[in-house]
Design goal:
- The chain is α+β, with helices and mostly antiparallel strands.
- The chain folds into two domains: about 230 residues, no CATH class; about 230 residues, Up-down Bundle (Rhopdopsin 7-helix transmembrane proteins), CATH 1.20.1070.
- It is built from 13 helices and twelve strands.
- Strands 1, 2, 4, 7, 8 and 10 form a six-stranded antiparallel β-sheet that branches. It has a four-stranded antiparallel β-sheet with strand order 3-9-5-6.
- The N terminus and C terminus are likely disordered.
Length: about 625
């Protein structure tokens, strides 16, 4: 059975072409089928048994089967994908709802084919099987997910072919004998190029007390191996939203479309806020990372919707699109995680740069996280057993991701605490920021535990999909609200203009960076955002730069205690005329040997403070030809 699990991987891809695989394994001794206890689920036969000959519209070797079953045409969307992408991206073995077609040749006597979660009273299997009469007689076995059925036989090394057949009862119509003696199999003998074949075309309906996973296997105990050409269509009803979907996938397409529309709105709002921030020179790197994460989330959901829409149409889908969507989804998550760690360390909030050691640690961590994500996708594609219903995190790579998530939270918490200790005035931003994303950091591990142990397998796929998208929506929505450029937003983190980061974090004497490249503490406070439609009155008190000057500098002036609150230092713009007169106005005083004419007397204008308008200007930038005047 160790080799058998590679076989359904080709089936689950839903490829229109045939696939051939040879197997080797032990043979089971011949024995009659033994009955077992009656199970609560039944595979119902067609209403009328019909004749043991050909069904209407069925031809040996044709692509049409019972119920008008036709092999779908190759979707046009495949022609639009780059051929290199199709070659490089691995195809996972876990496409579930289905059109299945292939050619099996094996020396084993019991082989798993595929699985599907059928909806009670609506699930149906339409099939067409064809094999040489010399290989007679083979059986199609229908197991369901009761502990006494499929879990009891799959990968059970102590059970032979006979024991695996004994857990099901023919009275429940769980056995389809592919012979002309079994009328409901729809088999007939046909000849082709001197070889006699058994061609069987029919169908089954499924009834149970709830949605169940059904597993389809092929057996011939004590025979000389298995050989079968097969074509199966597994459906749930006739609605576009359910027909080709496994019952555990119901609602995924609708959920993805809904979240796609919501994330498009979030992305457009982030672009609008980014436009406003750019106009105020507050569009920092971390906000650009948020916009990139939201954009990748939109692209990921768009590709998921295209994949599921195509899948709902033909029952095959394009697995390359699904892989691409997963890669974009993971990229969005990684960018957002890196942004949170950078903000926790104070980047663009309390400092303009990250130290060299911090950059190295971040690079190593994010590289490790990325490689683990890639390993998870590869493990899911290559090593997940299609005979079992597994969750993404049920793997060593999944457990590694959970561990890295916990480590990231520890790092994030330490960084936030250090930032708050050095910059307590940033509490209005960091306290709600830390509280909100503490929930986010623990949501992924908790979701993995709940999915592995608390959600039934027949409903896990759709529930986990909704929870995962909800977690991403929570993360992006909270950040969008906390960083909105509004006068009512007291949590806004950015207070240093992008053009002033280099000046604020410039190296000190000797080339060293004081306070770990931190911004001055006094530049932080509540910033009043003014609408674009209202003039910025703080600019009325700034003197425009002369045309002959090209330098820029930052001036800081302490305001009197009667104007500024106690314990707070505020910077304000100073008129250029208020600066002390240069020595060039009194050349003789500057140079006693001066023999030129004495300039006329020019009275000094007393230095006055600019009127206070209630709008604090933390940075007033003007040009100056020399060094800044003393404060």
């Amino acid at each position: 059975m160790g080799k058998g699990r590679t076989f359904p991987r080709r089936l689950d891809r839903g490829q229109a072409g045939s696939s051939r695989r040879r197997r080797q394994g032990a043979r089971c001794p011949a024995a009659p089928l033994i009955g077992a206890a009656r199970q609560p689920a039944r595979a119902l036969s067609p209403p009328s048994p019909g004749r043991s000959g050909s069904r209407s519209g069925t031809r040996a070797g044709a692509g049409a089967g019972a119920g008008g079953m036709e092999p779908p045409r190759a979707p046009a969307l495949r022609r639009l994908l780059p051929p290199l992408l199709l070659l490089m991206l691995p195809l996972p073995p876990r496409a579930r709802a289905k059109y299945v077609r292939g050619n099996l040749s094996s020396k084993e006597d019991w082989v798993f084919l595929t699985r599907f979660c059928f909806l009670s009273d609506y699930g149906r299997l339409d099939f067409r099987f064809r094999y040489p009469e010399a290989k007679c007689c083979q059986n199609i076995l229908l197991y369901f997910d009761d502990p006494s059925q499929w879990p009891a036989v799959y990968k059970a090394g102590d059970k032979d072919c006979l024991a695996k057949e004994s857990v099901i009862r023919p009275e429940n119509n769980q056995v389809i004998n592919l012979t002309t003696q079994y009328a409901w199999s729809g088999c007939q003998v046909v000849s082709e190029e001197g070889t006699r074949y058994l061609s069987c075309s029919s169908g089954r309906s499924f009834r149970s007390v709830r949605e169940r996973w059904w597993y389809i296997a092929l057996s011939k105990c004590g025979g000389d191996g298995l050989q079968l050409e097969y074509e199966m269509v597994l459906t749930n009803g006739k609605s576009f939203w359910t027909r080709h979907f496994s019952a555990d996938e119901f609602g995924i397409l609708e959920t993805d479309v809904t979240f796609l529309l919501i994330f498009i709105l979030i992305f457009l709002l982030s672009c609008y806020f980014g436009y406003l921030l750019k106009g105020r020179q507050l569009l920092h790197t971390t906000y650009k990372m948020f916009m990139a994460a939201a954009g990748m989330e939109v692209l990921s959901l768009l590709f998921f919707c295209i994949y599921w829409g195509q899948y709902a149409t033909d029952g095959i889908g394009n697995e390359s699109l699904k892989i691409l969507a997963k890669l974009l989804f993971s990229s969005s998550f990684l960018i957002f995680l890196l942004m949170l760690i950078l903000l926790g360390k104070g980047f663009t909030v309390t400092r303009g740069r990250i130290s060299h050691s911090g950059s190295v640690k971040l690079s190593v961590y994010m590289t490790l996280y990325t490689l683990t994500h890639v390993a998870l996708l590869i493990y899911e594609a290559e090593f997940f057993d299609p005979g079992q219903v597994l969750y993404t995190y049920e793997s060593p790579a999944g457990y590694g991701l959970i561990g890295l998530q916990v480590a990231a939270y520890v790092w994030f918490s330490y960084a936030v605490l250090v930032s708050l200790r050095h910059f307590p005035e940033k509490q209005p931003f960091y306290v709600p920021f830390f509280a909100a994303y503490t929930l986010w950091f623990f949501a992924v591990p908790v979701m993995a535990l709940i999915a592995n142990f608390g959600i039934p397998k027949w409903a896990r796929e759709k529930i986990v999909n909704g929870i995962q998208l909800g977690i991403h929506l929570y993360a992006h929505g909270v950040f969008l609200i906390m960083t909105r450029p509004s006068a009512a937003n007291k949590n806004f983190p950015y207070h240093v203009r992008t053009s002033q980061i280099a000046s604020a974090g410039a190296p000190g004497p000797g080339g060293s960076q004081s306070a770990d490249k931190a911004f001055p503490q006094h530049v932080y406070g509540n910033v009043t955002f003014i609408s674009d439609s209202v003039p910025n009155f703080t600019e009325l008190f700034s003197i425009p730069p002369p045309a002959s000057c090209a330098g820029k500098q930052v001036e800081e002036t302490a305001v009197a205690a009667a104007v500024a609150p106690r314990g707070r230092v505020v910077t304000m713009a100073e008129p250029g005329a208020a600066s002390p007169p240069p020595s060039s106005r009194f050349p003789k005083a500057a140079d006693p040997s001066w023999d030129g004419p004495t300039p006329p007397y020019q009275p000094l204008v007393p230095q006055t403070a600019a009127p206070h308008t209630g709008f604090t200007e933390y940075f007033s930038m003007h040009t100056a030809g020399g060094t800044a005047p003393p404060v």
